[in-house]
């Protein structure tokens, strides 16, 4: 991670400070975002504390203030990917994620998509319910996303096949030789292996209790940004999003973190 890139964030919000890209800032993200210039971030990939599942050194998680801060710093056409799951409390799901999604809409974000992060392997078994194998990835945008580079996957069938062709006036159902596509746009359910070697190979990152897969961050960065765009994670934990901002072409990033992470 370079610390020599001294380009500043764009924007002329009165009172806005210049924040250097490609740096980690240790700060409360609500205070930090209030000091950032408005409308400067192209993509945020972040994940909040889930309900009160963990105590992150007592730092407060003020969801509404964070949501409003994200709305303020996101560019028109910019995207926020909010990776979130629910605690199971007294035998039922809290649905905090749903409430958060609705709040994001209330303050002006579009719920562009509700994607699923499926875990290929998961330890969260319940004795009276099916094993939980997913979290949500809310894809929020300010207006329509300005960038979409769809990721693709191989099709099951490819090569040449005789395929039905439109009927003519004779009502005969003709077939013609056509080449099937080798690749198709992925669905909005993305599956990742989790745990050491899946989430990351970085042992130091695992000192953090709730790391999301580095490929998840990379896939969203590839999907929603162009080279040179600003990627941000206000609650970066072990630093997964900042570590994965360097896709070919070099996206630049700014972010914050807390001392415990
Ligand atoms: C679910 S974890 C994020 C993990 C991260 N995505 C990763 O891959 O390592 C949530 C993080 O938010 C941080 N956090 C909570 N409240 C915060 C705040 N007000 N400002 C900055 N960070 C905060 C916590 O310290 C924790 O590291």
Strand-pairing-aware structural class: alpha/beta
| Count of domain modules | 2
CA gyration radius, whole angstroms: 21 Å
Summarize the biggest pleated sheet.
Answer: 8 strands, mixed
| Assigned CATH class of the largest domain | Alpha Beta
Q: What is the count of DSSP helices, taking H or I runs of 4+ residues?
A: 5
Give an account of the 3D structure.
This protein has 261 residues and is an alpha/beta fold. The chain folds into two domains: 23-151 and 186-257, Vaccinia Virus protein VP39 (Rossmann fold, 3-Layer(aba) Sandwich), CATH 3.40.50.150; 153-185, no CATH class. Helix content is 17%, strand content 29%. The protein has an eight-stranded mixed beta sheet with strand order 1-14-13-2-3-7-6-12. Strand 13, helix 5 and strand 14 (252-257) form a beta-alpha-beta unit. Helix 1 (29-35) packs parallel to helix 2. The chain is globular. The protein starts with 22 loop residues before the first strand and ends with a strand. The structure holds S-adenosylmethionine. S-adenosylmethionine (SAM) is lined by residues 28-30, 47-49, 56, 59, 61, 208, 210-212, 234-238, 240, 256, 258, 260-261. The site of S-adenosylmethionine has 23 residues, from helix 1.
């Amino acid at each position: 991670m370079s610390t020599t890139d001294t380009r500043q964030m764009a924007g002329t919000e009165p009172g806005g400070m210049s924040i250097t890209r490609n740096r980690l800032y240790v700060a409360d993200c609500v205070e930090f975002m209030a000091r950032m210039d408005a409308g400067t971030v192209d993509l945020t990939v972040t994940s909040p504390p889930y309900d009160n599942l963990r105590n992150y050194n007592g730092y407060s998680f003020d969801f509404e203030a964070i949501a409003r801060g994200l709305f303020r710093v996101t560019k028109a056409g910019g995207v926020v990917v909010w990776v979130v799951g629910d605690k199971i409390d007294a035998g039922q799901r809290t649905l905090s994620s749903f409430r958060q999604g609705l709040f994001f809409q209330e303050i002006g974000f579009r719920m562009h998509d509700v994607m699923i992060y499926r875990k290929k392997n998961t330890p969260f078994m319940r004795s009276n319910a099916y094993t939980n194998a997913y979290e949500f990835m809310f894809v929020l945008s300010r207006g329509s996303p300005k960038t979409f580079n769809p990721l693709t996957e191989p099709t099951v069938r490819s090569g040449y096949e005789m395929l039905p062709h439109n009927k003519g006036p004779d009502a005969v159902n003709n077939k013609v030789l056509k080449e099937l596509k080798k690749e198709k746009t992925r669905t909005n359910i993305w599956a990742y292996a989790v745990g050491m070697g899946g989430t990351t190979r970085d042992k130091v990152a695992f000192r953090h209790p709730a790391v999301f897969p580095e490929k998840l961050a990379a896939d969203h960065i590839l999907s929603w940004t162009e080279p040179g765009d600003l990627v941000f994670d206000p609650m970066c934990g072990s630093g997964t999003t900042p570590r994965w901002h360097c896709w070919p072409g070099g996206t630049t990033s700014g972010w914050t973190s807390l001392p415990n992470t």
